[in-house]
Each structure stands twice: as structure tokens, then as C-alpha cells.
Specification:
- The chain is mostly beta strands and 223 residues long.
- The N and C termini lie far apart (106 Å).
- The radius of gyration is 32 Å and the shape is rod-shaped.
- The strands form 5 sheets. A 5-stranded mixed sheet has the order 9-17-16-12-13, with no helix packed on it. A 4-stranded mixed sheet has the order 1-7-6-3, with no helix packed on it.
- It has one helix at 29-32; strands at 5-9, 14-17, 41-46, 57-60, 63-66, 75-85, 90-102, 107-108, 115-118, 124-127, 132-133, 141-149, 151-153, 160-163, 168-171, 180-190, 197-207.
- It has 2 domains: 5-102, Immunoglobulins (Immunoglobulin-like, Sandwich), CATH 2.60.40; 107-212, Immunoglobulin-like, CATH 2.60.40.10.
Length: 223
């Protein structure tokens, strides 16, 4: 019996390896081998016995593999596996089903580390961890970042920028007015599924270090 295959659109491929078929000749197997009439060959069709299977299903030896990113294939498909001894025109088949479902992402947002930067300091950077999809649906994340101050607004590019391609924030300012504590939110959104997104936040503290410096005289001034 060929087991049914269940896979998800854009999910990991599903594969079953069935036990190889042998001929049923029962005499002199020990002397002449298990396949007295030849080695069986295999092919697959749709359940009508003639229509070719779509590219989502492949057969290599005794391994059936189902994999697709095409949502039009979602559903249950009836398939036949033919086993044939061609020289003798012997052919039998078994039916099974390929069940294709929608892969539902499960997004995990990383923990973002709080950051600190001082006015007039050398430029600082922070590369945050990537978001992940526990169900491995094969989509790609896109990233956006916002400043949160009651509502979400664009990052203040005067002192903070974000490069989504590298997941990296950069901080740099010489303006003491930029000192403060800021909440920054990062969204990870799956391509082609705009409503499937998750977010994480962290705190950026920009201090005006020079305002708190204490001056001291290292060499006494002569009279």
C-alpha cells in the first residue's frame, strides 16, 4: 500500500519511500534470483491512468516527493503508481492521495537589546537578530523600523538610520538637542502575506555626555 502524502504550499517537501515491488514467480527463486521476470519499473499518473501528474509530484526510483509553491494546487489529488514488467506487458497499479494544504507561517520575533549612544561620540551601530518562521513556509521577511512616541513615526534620520537589508541601525549626532530616551520598533513582515507580521521594540538612550563633564586643572597657573 502506498501511503498518502501531505505537504504544504511553500512548505518543506514531503517524501515517502515505498518498498520495492518484486515479481511473484515462486519457483527456483534461490537458484535464479528474486526477479525471475525482470526488475519492475515505476511511473505515476493522475487517477484516470492517462493524465500526467503536475510538476509538484516527482518519482525517483521508489521515492515519491511532493513540493509546490503554487496555491492553485491546494486540495486532494488522486494519484496512481504503476508497477510494470515491460517485456511481459505486466502492469498493476496502486492508488494514493496527495493532500496539499496552505502553509501557515508562525513568526517568532527576536529579543532586541537596548542601546546607548552619547552625543559627539563616534558613530554607533546595532545589528538586530532576524525574525524566524517556525513552520518554514519559504517566505522572505521584509523589515521596517519606526520611532514610537505615542504613535509610530519615521525614524529621526538626523541621528538614527536603519538599513533593512543588513538589519543594522546606525547612530550619530553632534546636536545636544538629540539627547533623550527613545523607543524603536522593528516589524518583520512576510512577503506576499502583508497581514502576517510581528514586531519587537528596544530602547535607545542618547545622552549628552559633554554636558555632564567636569573640568579640572591639571597644571596650576602661576601667579
Amino acid at each position: 500500500m502506498i501511503p498518502n502524502l501531505t505537504t504544504s504550499v511553500s512548505g518543506a517537501a514531503a517524501a515517502h519511500t515505498f518498498t520495492a515491488f518484486t515479481d511473484s514467480v515462486s519457483v527456483a527463486k534461490t537458484a535464479y534470483g528474486a526477479n525471475l521476470c525482470g526488475v519492475p519499473t515505476y511511473r505515476i499518473t493522475m487517477d484516470d491512468g492517462t493524465t500526467a501528474v503536475p510538476a509538484y509530484l516527482t518519482l525517483s526510483g521508489t521515492t515519491l516527493t511532493a513540493s509546490t509553491t503554487d496555491p492553485t494546487f491546494i486540495g486532494t489529488h488522486n494519484i496512481r503508481l504503476y508497477v510494470e514488467l515491460t517485456p511481459y506487458s505486466i502492469s498493476v497499479f496502486e492508488s494514493f492521495q496527495v493532500i496539499i494544504t496552505e502553509c501557515v507561517p508562525s513568526i517568532t520575533a527576536p529579543t532586541l537589546a537596548n542601546q546607548a549612544y552619547a552625543v559627539n561620540a563616534a558613530a554607533g551601530t546595532y545589528t538586530h537578530p532576524a525574525f524566524t518562521d517556525a513552520n518554514s513556509c519559504g517566505y522572505t521577511f521584509t523589515y521596517t523600523a519606526f520611532l514610537v512616541a505615542g504613535t509610530e513615526t519615521a525614524l529621526p534620520t538626523a541621528y538614527a538610520t536603519y538599513t533593512a537589508g543588513t538589519l543594522t541601525f546606525s547612530y550619530s549626532t553632534t546636536d545636544a538637542n538629540d539627547a533623550g530616551v527613545y523607543t524603536i520598533k522593528v516589524y518583520g513582515t512576510l512577503d506576499n502575506t502583508a497581514t502576517t507580521a510581528s514586531s519587537a521594540t528596544y530602547t535607545l538612550t542618547v545622552s549628552n555626555g559633554c554636558a555632564a563633564d567636569a573640568l579640572s586643572l591639571t597644571t596650576a597657573i602661576g601667579a
